[in-house]
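URGENT: need a sanity check before tomorrow's submission.

F., can you look over the glutathione transferase record below? I want to be sure the sequence and structure line up before it goes out.
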Amino acid sequence: MAQRDLRLLGAWFSPFVLRVQIALNLKGLDYEVVEETLNPKSELLLKSNPVHKKIPVFFHGDKVICESAIIVEYIDEVWSNNALSILPQNAYDRANARFWVSYIDDKWVTSLKSVLLAGDDDEAKKSHFVEMEEALERMEEVFNKCSEGKTYFGGDTIGIVDIVFGSLWSWMRVIEEMNGRKVFDEAKNPSLAKWAETFSADAAVKGVLPETHKLVEYAESLKKRWAAAAANPFALRVQIALNLKGLDYEVVEETLNPKSELLLKSNPVHKKIPVFFHGDKVICESAIIVEYIDEWYTSMRNALLAEAADQDDEAKKPHFVGMEEALERMEEVFNKCSEGKAYFGRGYNWNY
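Structure tokens as predicted:
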């Protein structure tokens, strides 16, 4: 079924983009993949996802949908008459599936990222490997319960839990290869071993699964970029502060010779790194950036400055600013979603 108005903005290595591709393939839809540069982020990405500025972004005609799980559900609902259903028909089963999707993202994505960020520090990786192994044991139990003896988590056909868990499978293999350590033990997880083989061979999946050796090459390049950033003591200060606060962030490697347009534009006075971007805010000088991070994220763990722990009026200021900015954003959202009516839900009744 050809749908010429379907476009997916993403990157070949992203498991979140892969989720959307699998969903589209399961529905038998024809779509165009637009490869996102990310470094720097394209105008299309910044314009279509101004809130999170992340991939994937799905374009259905003039409609723009962001966040992989939301996109997959949208595809399932819009093309409900196409082939199989990705989400369970029963409300309780749907709620259950969403719970395990959340669990996978919380446990697996965090652990995979942490192992990559740990670089060559084997000690730092240990706890994350243990977490992944424990999560695999849990998923073995979940599969046996949810599949009810059938092929997939969703039964006879691939469902949303299969898509979300399966999208991370290639990256788990990358972690194993790069660290020379087995995470997935077929003997301990026989049901998942059989599931992985069947899932990877499905027509909707095998054509879009990234090759492990290419992912390894990409991951190695990421490690080099992170190592280069860590080699700069001033950039390292900022990274440590962000890590202490438990924040997810992107490192953009600066060429320096010659200096990039981004650096010259964002720090025109000193023309030096690091430069920290928080939405449309630009902060320069490592000590100033560290203080900014501590003051802005005071509600998060690890106060970096002694006075920040006091939660005085000065420490509260960033939160008020954040709430004010969020209110401005919600004002825009309301005006767009309500279409002049009483509520966000485009009607006169309360809406989810």
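My own read: Strands lie at 6-10, 32-35, 57-60, 63-66, 275-278, 281-284. The radius of gyration is 22 Å. If you see anything odd, call me.
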